[in-house]
């Protein structure tokens, strides 16, 4: 890495997290240089490290976007000392959270998620809502997230002062993407955002993760989906509170309506995602804005009816409980595999088991004894 410096949030215990470097800049001259620039660089470094949690919490609640972004950066950091600060910050802000409607959006690549969020988010801002858009990207730990693509596709919304768009965090220890996105959601709520949109590409696990953190979950699909319908995993449909057939415009309107009826028939036979709520199929055009208001009406209806029945609050209680459990699992896994004795013994244990000289359970038992210091 030559002369490159690692950023201050770098965690030396876990090189896996390390995705960027700070290039060495031009150093001020040792003697006789401009003393002002030296002072300034010292000042910048200090202010970045000394985070005043009390002050930051106040600024976030006052609606400062810069402070919100700083808070989120703290939550997303993989450094242990930032983790502690982030938890203090969350503790301060917790009383201000929970007042938003949390909406998950999924769909295959090209279904129109970004275009939909642009239209739907802008519509909500015009109604006076404050909208935060977050993303869970299962590929982000490899690619660093699809930041640029989405920001350019949500150009109008990104410029709207009532909206806040945050690309997907990358993984790491201490709970990974799941924790980071949930905590970011809480920070946004404490900053007064009352609609949270969480987007994810519909590939496997990420829908389940998002379903577990939102109140309402919608699946965006395309028309002419006869084949798609058959191929689509029943599991995904059973997570959804609404199926939205997008691109219902131009020549596609009639086809979209036919697809809507087909989905309606199938949904009728599936287990609903939310107790007491029949999953609906609707059409919309994200490009022309048609059907967008109906979707918001449906979500409001959903919120009202599940609040009345108690299902809304019950789901949030279960989600929080589930969150605790998943974080425990994450931490256990991390601490086990990073335990020095486990690291030493594991390769030998694997070889012995593979060569057939030791039973699996005996090898695992030995590893756990080493981990627990028994
Ligand atoms: N005609 C029409 N085209 C649309 C509509 N919504 C999206 N599109 C087009 O469909 C293409 C894909 O839309 P995106 O919003 O990028 O889709 P996405 O689901 O975000 O895709 P990924 O980010 O790759 O997962 C773009 O060319 C959009 O212009 C719509 O309502 N009508
Ligand atoms: Mg997109």
TrEMBL record:
Gene3D superfamilies: 1.10.287.130, 1.20.5.170, P-loop containing nucleotide triphosphate hydrolases
MF (Gene Ontology): GTP binding; GTPase activity
CDD domains: MMAA-like
GO cellular component entries: cytoplasm
SUPFAM superfamilies in the record: P-loop containing nucleoside triphosphate hydrolases
Record region (Disordered): 1-41
Biased composition (Basic and acidic residues): 1-16
Family recorded in the similarity comment: Belongs to the SIMIBI class G3E GTPase family. ArgK/MeaB subfamily.
Record-given protein name: Transporter
Annotated source species: Mesobacillus campisalis
């Amino acid at each position: 890495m030559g002369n490159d410096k690692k950023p201050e949030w770098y965690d030396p215990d876990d090189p896996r997290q390390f995705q960027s470097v700070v290039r060495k800049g031009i150093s001020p001259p040792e003697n006789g240089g401009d003393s002002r620039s030296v002072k300034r660089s010292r000042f910048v470094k200090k202010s970045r490290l000394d985070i005043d949690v009390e002050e930051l919490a106040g600024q976030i609640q006052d609606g400062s976007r810069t402070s919100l972004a700083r808070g989120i950066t703290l939550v997303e950091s993989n450094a242990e000392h930032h983790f502690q600060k982030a938890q203090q910050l969350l503790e301060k802000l917790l009383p201000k959270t929970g007042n938003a409607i949390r909406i998950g959006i999924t769909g295959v690549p090209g279904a129109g998620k970004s275009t939909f969020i642009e239209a739907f988010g802008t519509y909500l801002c015009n109604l006076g809502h404050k909208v935060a858009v977050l993303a869970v990207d299962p590929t982000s730990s490899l690619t660093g997230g699809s930041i640029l693509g989405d920001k350019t596709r949500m150009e109008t919304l990104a410029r709207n002062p009532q909206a806040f768009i945050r690309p997907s965090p990358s993984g790491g220890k201490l709970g990974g993407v799941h924790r980071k996105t949930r905590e970011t959601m809480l920070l946004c709520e404490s900053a007064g955002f009352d609609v949270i949109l969480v987007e994810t590409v519909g590939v496997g696990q990420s829908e389940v993760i998002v379903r577990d953190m939102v109140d309402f979950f919608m699946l965006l699909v395309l028309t002419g989906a006869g084949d798609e319908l058959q191929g689509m995993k029943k599991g995904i449909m059973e997570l959804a509170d609404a199926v939205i057939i997008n691109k219902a415009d131009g020549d596609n309107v009639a086809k979209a309506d036919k697809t809507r009826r087909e989905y309606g028939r199938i949904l009728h036979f599936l287990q609903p995602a939310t107790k007491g709520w029949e999953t609906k199929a609707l059409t919309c055009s994200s490009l022309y804005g048609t059907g967008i208001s109906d979707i918001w009406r449906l979500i409001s209806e959903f919120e009202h009816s599940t609040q009345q029945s108690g299902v809304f609050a019950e789901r949030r209680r279960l989600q929080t409980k589930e969150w605790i459990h998943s974080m425990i699992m994450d931490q256990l896994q991390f601490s086990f595999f990073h335990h020095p004795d486990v690291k030493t013994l594991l390769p030998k244990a694997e070889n012995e088991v593979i060569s057939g000289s030791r039973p699996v359970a005996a090898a695992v038992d030995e590893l756990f004894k080493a981990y627990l210091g028994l």
